[in-house]
Design goal:
The complex is a heterodimer of chains A (503) and B (488).
Chain A: H1 3-39, H2 46-53, H3 58-68, H4 76-98, H5 111-119, H6 128-145, H7 151-169, H8 172-186, H9 197-211, H10 218-222, H11 241-251, H12 253-259, H13 264-289, H14 292-305, H15 309-316, H16 323-335, H17 339-342, H18 363-376, H19 379-392, H20 397-410, H21 413-424, H22 430-437, H23 443-448, H24 452-457, H25 471-481, H26 486-499
Helix pairs in contact in A: 1-4, 1-14, 2-3, 3-6, 4-5, 4-6, 5-11, 5-13, 6-7, 6-8, 7-8, 7-9, 8-9, 8-11, 14-16, 14-18, 15-16, 16-18, 18-19, 19-20, 20-21, 21-22, 25-26
Chain B: H1 2-19, E1 25-26, E2 33-34, E3 41-42, E4 51-53, E5 59-65, E6 68-73, E7 78-79, H2 83-92, E8 97-106, E9 109-112, E10 116-120, E11 128-134, E12 145-150, E13 156-161, E14 169-176, E15 179-188, E16 193-198, E17 201-206, E18 220-221, E19 227-239, E20 247-260, E21 265-267, E22 277-284, E23 290-297, E24 311-319, E25 324-333, H3 335-338, E26 341-347, E27 353-359, E28 372-377, E29 383-385, E30 395-400, E31 406-411, E32 420-425, E33 436-437, H4 443-449, E34 453-460, H5 468-477, E35 481-482, E36 484-485
Parallel strand pairs in B: 1-9, 3-10, 17-35, 21-36
Antiparallel strand pairs in B: 2-4, 4-7, 5-6, 5-8, 8-9, 8-10, 11-12, 11-34, 12-13, 14-15, 15-16, 16-17, 18-19, 19-20, 20-21, 22-23, 23-24, 24-25, 26-27, 27-28, 28-29, 30-31, 31-32, 32-33
Classes of the chains: A mainly alpha (503), B mainly beta (488).
């Protein structure tokens, strides 16, 4: 086939795959990707940036945080993710080409990126895992393009790439090293035994990083566990698959040695088989890994963080799945001032429909509880909850906003100033932070603000502990001290109606 | 080459001329600077006390000392001393004062603020300060670590970081007589245990026994290194609705025990482990013959009665040869009599002065805005507040330098939430000088942006050399040595 036509054809196929991925992610994962924006923050601050860059893999963390901060419009996450996955696939394909793969195995270049898409279904698998894969694939492409050079130059380049990758992206260096070795073996390059140096070098660098105390264990320095939440007791095996499948894709070039000399129909058949070998396992793994409760939570939390109360109400209008759903729904109703009136338009389940698991220490629960407690006017409890939630997510912008607001209400302006300063360094929240600066040291202005002034009046006079007995006992005290807090009153009335207590 | 040298010399001359200005008049007021280093006394080996002028306009700093005068130009308000020049200056000015004058340009004239002095002590402070950095936490945590800061420069490195052990909680680091080779700290949640570093060996201890209510908590080493006193506590934390203190941390039960670091046995006295009292915060005297601790009458129910718990300062004899305790307890400061509560007793290495934290009630004084530092002269028994060190906000955890001349303590005077370390010089009369904030390269930017607190600042006589990996390996990969209770 004419090389130019082939390139155009493959380019078109790549575009179709990426476009399909964009639609797939948009319809299946857009809120999960949006949630990533809440999961880790990027700050435009040199100390913050340099602090990350000095750590192994810090560059991939920075890139991930920089990219995910853009995921506020729902379409951006699917597009960026598809481009990163598609870009990785393209680099893999270019590497496969260099090892003699024919167009019939082109679909296999999507195998590894497809399984990173599966991994991203787990919020504990950080976005830097995808960035690291992209960097490793780019390095692999560069390495394979240099394959024609003398073997010493080739292996030297490979070694430099291993070192650079470890510094920039962590254990993706080993992925690159193994893949580069497989490329050389498949392509039968001269002195290919020298290529064993690259994975050995990657493991050695990983071992040194463990010895220095930069990385926890060899497992972290050599596997995708590096990109998984450290606090988690164990990483599901599925997250290793993308790494296993990358060298497997390269091995597919061997298939081309069989099909290469055959007719176009056999090649087309091989292409279809290759496509199915990607799509079927991807589909099975995707739907096995998909956690619908998590997806639902991400959607609710994204809507709540944007104060899109109509969005929450619409979502729940015919489909309330859990107490968590009810909590978010009732929060939205309270925020819109219709909780009392519309409460029983939805299937409620007792007082816990308003706030469930109020003493939970799960990071996800703490996000939900922070919003609800804030809306209830239980500012001290909201502050405590938001503080812990912010820590659990290593900076969550919604929680930081609650902290700023409660510190302003308390009059602890110096602390509010610090958090405002932090938010001013972010892309999405700097204007919010600048707007709130005017309340610093300005009691008169603050007390006129409907949210801050009202919140300040919500603090009970007593020195009791929050959530000492229950959120509803706190609510009674709040309503007593600030009967003008309409949301607190609505919650109190709703509680009475749901508990059957009309006294 | 000669031309280059001339060119460089001219350049330096121009630069120095650029900094120096003629003073046209005096403003007659004190400059607003951060940190407030006016009138402080510093050790002769401290890192440069860079500070910022908080006013507007171009500013210069005139530094005068026995070694001569220097001019420094501010950059965005920051006056920055070069480390080498600073060290030379301090070396030459030991035992005397530096006089600093901030000069600002107003309407084309250079006007001077009132000068202030920094006294340079003859003595040096221990070269390292160890502390934990963590958010001023409520219950959760994410990233934390124990760090060591070279006090002679701005270098700060991690002794241990919790990222190496699944983000567990690491706490209560403690050194035997400031020895970096003999230290311990606790880890809890995941890979829990006590890490003990002794003479190069790293060992994990499992310190919970059937006879004690918890794993070992607040440590204090015996000067010999053979023993460590600990408390065992059932600790809870609650968040106030509307109290300036924000949080209350209290013990429902607590006792004091002593661990033998060779046999890994713990022992205690009925006076340090009683049902009727909460005993905590043990500390040994420098001669190792007395064990000081805080004791409060047990109160129930908790947390309801949290403000009724007031700790007295007590002392019991300790015999290191027989690993036994005295028969009587002396009360040095009576909480019932005075209506206040003692925490963190710490005796100067020369045995003369005991500094403690005093607050209205309770023991977790870092969350009590009324917590202040007090001193007790051990010979005369006189107690007095350390007014020069105290502020309107919290002053709490403190520790002594090896020569008993320097004290480092924690304070929240900056913003009421984030704890910062301050150092102060103690004179032969047992009275401190004005404290100074731990120096940083750009302290205004650093402390404004720092979102963590300094916790448990401890002087160390040298660099901790034990590797993070060895510690993490001990926590992850070893079963640990079980601590047992010594048979009667």
């Amino acid at each position: 086939m004419d090389r130019k036509k082939l390139s155009i054809g493959l380019g078109a196929a790549w575009l179709v795959c990426v476009a399909a991925l964009v639609f797939f992610l948009y319809y299946g994962q857009k809120y999960l990707l949006c949630f990533r924006e809440q999961q880790q923050m990027f700050f435009f601050d040199w100390r913050y940036v340099s602090g990350l860059l000095v750590e192994p893999g810090g560059f991939s963390v920075l890139c991930a945080r920089f990219l995910t901060q853009l995921f506020r419009p729902l379409w951006v996450g699917p597009v960026v993710t598809s481009l990163l996955a598609g870009g990785s696939a393209w680099f893999i394909w270019k590497s496969m080409e260099r090892t003699g793969a024919g167009w019939e195995v082109f679909p296999l270049s999507f195998l590894a990126p497809a399984f990173v898409i599966v991994s991203l279904l787990d919020v504990q698998y950080f976005y830097q895992g995808l960035v690291a894969l992209f960097l490793a694939c780019a390095a692999l492409c560069l390495y394979n393009r240099s394959a024609g050079k003398k073997e010493s130059a080739r292996v030297s380049l490979g070694s430099v790439l291993v070192l650079a990758l470890f510094l920039l992206a962590g254990p993706a260096a080993l992925l690159f090293g193994v893949s580069a070795l497989v490329s050389d073996l498949v392509a039968m390059r001269r002195r290919r035994w020298l290529s064993f140096l690259m994975p050995v070098l990657a493991v050695s660098i990983g071992w040194l990083s463990v010895l220095c105390g930069s990385v926890a264990t060899m497992g972290h320095s050599c596997t995708p566990a590096f990109y998984y939440e450290l606090m988690s007791p164990g990483m599901p095996f599925i997250h290793n698959l993308s790494w296993i499948l990358l060298p497997v894709s390269l091995l597919a070039s061997l298939l081309s040695k069989v099909t290469g000399k055959r007719g176009i129909f056999l090649k087309a058949f091989a292409c279809v088989v290759a496509l199915l070998l990607v799509v079927i396992p991807f589909r099975i793994s995707y739907f096995r890994t998909l956690n619908r409760d998590l997806m639902r939570f991400c959607r609710m939390e994204v809507l709540a963080s944007r104060q899109d109360w109509n969005g929450i109400i619409l979502l729940c209008s015919h489909d309330v799945r859990s107490l968590d759903d009810l909590n978010y729904l009732n929060l939205a109703l309270a925020e819109k001032g219709v909780l009392k009136d519309d409460l029983f338009k939805y299937p409620q389940a007792g007082p816990e429909s308003l706030i469930a698991g109020e003493k939970s220490e799960s990071a996800i629960d703490m996000l939900r509880l922070s919003h609800i407690l804030f809306s209830m006017g239980n500012m001290a409890a909201a502050q405590s909850m938001a503080f812990n939630a912010n820590l659990a997510f290593a900076n969550n912008p919604s929680m930081l906003k609650i902290l700023v607001q409660v510190d302003l209400m308390r009059g602890t302006y110096d602390v509010a100033r610090k958090n405002i300063g932090l938010l001013k360094k972010s892309l999405n929240y700097r204007s919010w932070a600048r707007d709130y600066e005017r309340f610093l040291d300005n009691d008169a202005l603050l007390e006129k603000d409907p949210v801050l002034g009202n919140g300040r009046r919500d603090f009970p006079e007593d020195g009791d502990f929050v959530l000492g007995s229950s959120a509803f006992d706190d609510l009674r005290r709040i309503v007593k001290v600030n009967p003008d807090d309409l949301k607190a009153r609505q919650y109190a009335l709703a509680y009475m109606m749901l508990s059957g207590n009309t006294d | 080459m000669k031309r280059l040298a001339i060119f460089l010399a001219l350049g330096l001359l121009l630069l120095s001329c650029d900094r120096q200005v003629g003073i046209d008049g005096s403003l007659g007021t004190d400059p607003e600077i951060y940190p407030d280093y006016a009138g402080v006394t510093v050790p002769s080996n401290i890192a440069p006390l860079n500070f910022s002028y908080l006013g507007d306009g171009e500013a210069r700093l005139l530094v005068e000392g026995v070694s001569g005068t220097r001019w420094i130009k501010s950059r965005k308000g920051l006056f920055s001393f070069g480390i080498r020049r600073w060290r030379k200056m301090l070396d030459e000015c030991k035992g005397s004062d530096l006089t600093l004058t901030v000069v600002v340009r107003k309407e084309g004239r250079w006007l001077a603020f009132n000068p202030f002095s920094i006294s340079v002590s003859d003595s040096k402070v221990d070269p390292y300060l160890a502390f934990r950095l963590l958010p001023p936490g409520y219950q959760g945590w994410y990233e934390m670590g124990i760090y060591q800061r070279d006090l002679e420069s701005y270098s700060q490195k991690a002794i241990y970081r919790n990222v190496l052990t699944q983000r567990n909680c690491v706490n209560c680091h403690s050194f035997c007589d400031r020895d970096p080779g003999n230290m311990l700290f606790h880890a809890r949640a995941r890979f829990a245990g006590t890490v003990m570093v002794r003479d190069g060996e790293v060992r994990k201890l499992n310190t919970k026994t059937d006879s004690t209510i918890s794993a070992l908590v607040y440590p204090y080493w015996h000067p010999s290194g053979k023993y460590v006193a600990f408390s065992v506590n059932e600790t809870y934390q609650s968040f106030f609705n509307h109290d300036p203190n924000r949080i209350e941390v209290f013990d429902a039960v607590s006792d004091v025990v002593v661990l033998d670091t060779e046999t890994y046995e713990i022992s205690y006295s009925p006076f340090t482990k009683s049902q009727d009292a909460f005993e905590t915060f043990p500390t040994f005297s420098p001669d190792g013959r007395s064990l000081y601790f805080c004791s409060a009458k047990a109160v129930s129910p908790m947390p309801k009665e949290y403000s009724e718990v007031k700790y007295s300062l007590c002392r019991i004899a300790f015999d290191p040869e027989s690993f036994s305790f005295g028969d009587t307890v002396d009360t040095l400061y009576s909480a019932p009599l005075n209506g206040k509560s003692v925490s963190f007793p710490r005796i100067s290495p020369d045995g003369k002065l005991l500094v403690f934290t005093l607050s209205g009630y309770g023991n977790f004084s870092i969350w009590h805005k009324d917590a202040d530092l007090w001193a007790a002269e051990l010979e005369s028994g006189e107690t007095y507040p350390l007014d020069k060190l105290n502020s309107e906000d919290v002053e709490s955890y403190h520790s002594w330098s090896g020569d008993s001349k320097w004290l480092v303590f924690s304070s929240r005077r900056g913003d009421g939430l984030y704890t910062r370390p301050y150092l102060a010089c103690f004179g032969p009369d047992g009275k401190p000088s004005k404290p100074f904030l731990l120096p940083q390269r750009n302290p205004l930017k650093y402390y404004t942006e720092l979102m963590v607190s300094f916790n448990i600042p401890e002087f160390v006589s040298g660099r901790v050399k034990v590797g993070k990996h060895r510690i993490s390996s001990a926590l992850r990969n070893t079963e640990g040595t079980n601590v047992t209770v010594k048979a009667e």
